[in-house]
Specification:
Layout lengths: L6 E6 L10 E4 L13 E6 L4 E11 L13 E2 L8 H13 L4 H6 L9 E8 L7 H7 L4 E4 L8 H10 L3 E8 L5 E8 L3 H10 L5 H12 L4 E2 H8 L3 H9 L3 E8 L19 H15 L5 E6 L5 H14 L3 E5 L7 H11 L3 E4 L5 H12 L5 E4 L11 E7 L16 H12 L3 E5 L4 H9 L3 E5 L10 E6 H7 L7 H12 L3 E5 L8 E4 L16 E3 L4 E3 L6 E3 L12 E4 L3 H11 L5 E4 L9 H10 L5 E4 L12 E6 L13 H13 L10 E6 L5 H8 L2 H15 L6 E9 L2 H18 L5 E13 L2 E10 L5 H14 L6 E6 L6
Parallel strand pairs: 12-17, 12-18, 13-15, 13-16, 14-15, 16-17, 19-29, 20-27, 20-28, 26-27, 28-29
Antiparallel strand pairs: 1-2, 1-4, 3-4, 3-5, 6-7, 6-8, 9-10, 9-11, 21-25, 22-23, 23-24, 30-32, 30-33, 31-32
The structure holds adenosine-5'-triphosphate and zinc ion (ZN) (2 copies).
The site of one zinc ion has 8 residues, from loops.
Catalytic activity: ATP + H2O = ADP + phosphate + H(+); Couples ATP hydrolysis with the unwinding of duplex DNA by translocating in the 3'-5' direction
Cofactor: Zn(2+)
GO molecular function, one term: 3'-5' DNA helicase activity
């Protein structure tokens, strides 16, 4: 039996006073039948009864609450935006990621729904209100009202007038977006009747003639706008036809569907190789048995992992289930999307940052309403409101973009596993270079381990050479190109084959420095140098967005010898045009891909062979499958190795293996040239051999000796404040609390200032807890977090990051 919702527990959205404790509200009679958990409501909160938004977590009919309860003011939704699964996932997420529940609930709904609502006052009795109030309304009877912006004493006068019933307060909930509605038309007559109507038309009624003739051949409903274009008719003609009763017009929700806009050819399942077939069979058995088993699919580059995913998804769909496939944001290339859409058509929904808020909202609704049964998306798509999940796939599972860097600091892999438990379905983690964590779990049997050790058709992996740049840089006129790479590009250009060149930009930037006094141009808000941007002709801070003009004289000594240092893609592009004037070059980096669709366009042009060389940052390392690419060059392999992060080698190895895998995927043999200043480093030597297994062993040994993950769990605690002393004080207090709470087997690294201590005028201090088993730790951290929230007015903030991916 459905309980009548007389009371509701609401998680309120109050940024300055967050708590995971729900508040109980009374439900007004007129909402009793409408209110259900997962809906958003507007409720009065705190002493001033400020109106805020909240999520209903639970409704019930008996309250054991003694005091007087406030009432829910209004409903934001007519239907719950969060289903039962999401309502269960939220608290778990909040607990495991040390986040506030409200941010966990918000992250599950599309940004378009993170509604802004405004208040509106309506004048109901204009004769008895004070003059000031009447003046506020002017000639209107309704006016938007923002408590914060209306000064006293007017504010109090308005509120008093409201209390005494002279004004009414309304909520205008502008869910920033409404579903898009478009006009459709349909013939109201049958074919014979239409033909008869045509014969009776006056000779000069040419437009109506066109329309009716067309309709007599096309009985189905059609979008009016499209028809106007197609038949060159005006809206007037349609209105006339409607008046005469020949057509009916109606509005229909039209989803902005990014898939429909792609012109994708249908593809059929391929005949699987034995290794692929074994992987597919293992996973679909778990779908059928409804087991939440996690698989690690370790397959070398070009081994056909994607085809495995597609056939697993097809099986889930055949069982009337749904499928979720996560890919890193940057590999959501048109190529990848086409492969999925080509197989499953319009039942695919796409969720990624390239979509507008409106498009995402519509995709989300298609999923929620069950129209889309396959979801492909980046990190946050892990929350896609699919029902009856049959399988969750995470491609390139080692990618750090699966971890969100702001609250809630979740890893998509963990959320996927939670959902898999909820739905009793398997999870597939795929990669050519799995994260050490996942590979270690496969070793221990926690994950089931599937392998695709060969490329399709037993194509060899490309041959990789390491070039020692300590020698080479002296030899050529072009500091970024070794002779070997120049020669290799030359040959590919002559053979009309394609080249991918990658400039590794991790931990790296081009900055301005004075040659006379060594002055470096820094951001005024952060402890970091400004980065030079050629296309906007300015200096920018990548942390806070600060931008300023390029200096022509040194601000410190006045010298004109101020120059930029470092290699940017723009500079390399210039070198390339000098080296190979005949080559057609496409550049892909943050600057050329800023505009919507630019990323896709560049890749399409490269795929259509409109360019010979694709030059880019790490963006180009993943997922690309172009048959004519026979050379991959890495200009600077080791910028990341210099970073004091224990994952530096792992990241370097992964990146080099991924990018090498772009070469020689079809008939023609591939070659890879890696330029490096560390040719003896094991990450480079093993990337050269593309030997993941050996790298895994070697790296595990190092992690074991250093006491790093996956041998230890880690948690990073960061304190930040506007003043350095406050941040330091906070982190030392935290340190003391933790020290007494932790067992002797746990280790605390730090406290230390962060590598970039000041960002956007705030100072950052951190400590890292390494531990194996600390049953009391989570509770202790949660309490620290709640406590720090109470002292938030001082501007001191504590953030807690479980298994952080960046340690510096
Ligand atoms: N069973 C098969 N028979 C023939 N060709 C196949 C088969 N499976 C996959 N292919 C083709 O082999 C190529 C490589 O496959 P795919 O891109 O799926 O590999 P991958 O393992 O996902 O690669 P990467 O990790 O490097 O992106 C693709 O062009 C794909 O169409
Ligand atoms: Zn800055
Ligand atoms: Zn100077």
């Amino acid at each position: 039996m459905l309980a009548i919702a007389q009371y509701a527990e609401v998680i309120v959205d109050v940024p300055t006073m967050q708590t995971n404790q729900p508040y109980t509200y009374k439900v007004k009679h007129n909402f009793e039948n409408e209110l259900s958990p997962g809906m958003r409501v507007i409720v009065p909160f705190g002493r001033g009864s400020r109106l805020v938004q909240g999520f209903v977590m639970r409704v019930f009919s008996q309250a054991s609450f003694a005091g007087e309860l406030k009432e829910i003011e209004a409903l934001t939704d007519l239907e719950p935006v969060l289903d039962a699964e999401a309502l269960a996932l939220g608290p778990w997420l909040a607990q495991t990621t040390f986040s506030f529940l409200i941010s966990c609930l918000q992250v599950m709904i599309p940004s378009a729904l993170r509604a802004k609502y405004s208040k509106e006052l309506e004048l109901t009795n204009k004769f008895n209100v004070p003059e000031a109030v009447r003046a506020f309304f002017g000639a209107h009877t309704k006016k938007l009202f923002d408590e914060q912006k209306v000064a006293e004493p007017l504010r109090s006068q308005l509120l008093t007038a409201r209390r005494t019933g002279m004004l009414k307060l309304n909520y205008v909930v502008n869910d920033r977006l409404q579903a898009k509605q478009v006009s459709f038309i349909k013939a109201a007559l049958d074919k014979a009747e239409l033909e008869q109507a045509v014969s009776k038309l006056r000779a000069n009624a040419r437009n109506l003639h066109t329309l009716l003739t067309y309709l007599s051949q096309h009985p189905q409903a059609m979008q009016q706008g499209l028809l106007e274009k197609k038949l060159a008719l005006s809206p007037e003609t349609f209105r006339n036809a409607e008046k005469k009763g020949w057509i009916t017009r109606f509005k229909q929700v039209q989803y902005r569907n990014p898939v429909r806009q792609l012109n994708v050819k249908r593809t059929v399942p391929r005949h699987l190789t034995p290794a692929q077939a074994a992987a597919v069979a293992a996973v679909i058995a778990q779908i059928d048995q409804q087991q939440p088993t996690t698989f690690l699919l370790e397959g070398v580059t070009g081994s056909g992992k994607t085809e495995v995913y597609l056939q697993i998804i097809a099986h889930a769909l055949a069982q009337k289930k749904t499928a979720l496939m996560l890919v890193p944001e940057i590999s959501l290339t048109p190529q990848m999307v086409k492969r999925v859409v080509g197989r499953f058509g319009t039942q695919v929904a796409l969720l990624h940052s390239g979509l507008s808020d409106g498009e995402r909202f519509d995709e989300w609704r298609r999923i929620k309403e069950g129209q889309a049964t396959v979801v492909v998306g980046a990190r946050s798509a892990v929350f896609a409101p699919l029902k009856r999940l049959g399988v969750i796939i995470i491609d390139e599972e080692h990618e750090s973009s699966y971890k969100q860097e702001k609250m809630p600091r979740y890893h998509a892999r963990d959320v996927a596993k939670w959902r898999a438990d909820f739905h009793s379905c398997p999870v597939v983690l795929g990669s050519a270079t799995p994260s050490l964590e996942s590979r270690a779990r496969a070793q221990k049997g926690v994950y089931r381990w599937l392998k695709l050790p060969q490329r399709i058709n037993n194509k060899p992996l490309p041959q990789v050479s390491l070039i020692d740049m300590r020698q080479e840089a002296k030899k050529t006129r072009f500091p970024d190109f070794s002779q070997a790479l120049i020669d290799a590009v030359e040959i590919r250009l002559a053979k009309k084959e394609q080249v991918i060149l990658m400039l590794n930009r991790r931990g790296y930037s081009s900055f301005m420095m004075c040659r006379d006094c060594g002055y470096v141009l820094n951001c005024p808000n952060c402890d970091i140098s400004l980065t030079f941007h050629l296309d906007t002709h300015s200096m920018k801070c990548h942390y806070c967005g600060h931008e300023e003009a390029i200096p022509h004289v040194c601000p410190s000594c006045g010298s004109r010898q101020i120059r930029y240092y470092g290699t940017g893609t723009q500079k390399v592009e210039q070198e390339l045009t000098q080296l190979f004037p005949q080559a057609r070059i496409l550049r892909m980096d943050v600057d050329t891909t800023k505009r919507k669709g630019a990323h896709a366009r560049i890749l399409r042009e490269f795929g259509e062979r409109k360019a010979d060389i694709l030059l880019g940052t790490q963006m180009i390392a993943k997922g690309l499958d172009y048959p004519d690419v026979t050379l991959v060059g890495v200009l600077n392999a080791d910028t990341a190795l210099g970073l004091a992060d224990f994952r530096a080698s792992e990241r370097t190895f992964q990146l080099l293996t991924q990018v090498s895998g772009r070469a020689g995927r079809a008939q023609k043999e591939g070659k890879v040239i890696i330029q490096t200043y560390n040719p003896e480093h094991y990450a480079l030597l093993l990337a050269q051999k593309q030997d993941y297994e050996q790298f895994f062993m070697r790296e595990m040994d190092i992690r074991h000796r250093g006491g790093y993950p996956p041998y230890y769990f880690t948690i990073q605690v960061t304190a930040s404040a506007p003043a350095e002393s406050q941040a330091a004080k906070k982190i030392f207090e935290t340190y003391k609390t933790l020290k007494t709470a932790l067992s002797s087997s746990a280790v605390i690294l730090g406290p230390t200032p962060k590598a970039i201590m000041r960002i956007n005028k705030r100072y950052y201090y951190q400590l890292i807890i390494k531990y194996k088993k600390e049953p009391g730790l989570a509770a202790c951290l949660s309490e620290l977090l709640q406590k720090s929230q109470r002292s938030e007015r001082t501007g001191v903030l504590l953030t807690i990051d479980r298994e952080p991916l960046n340690f510096i």
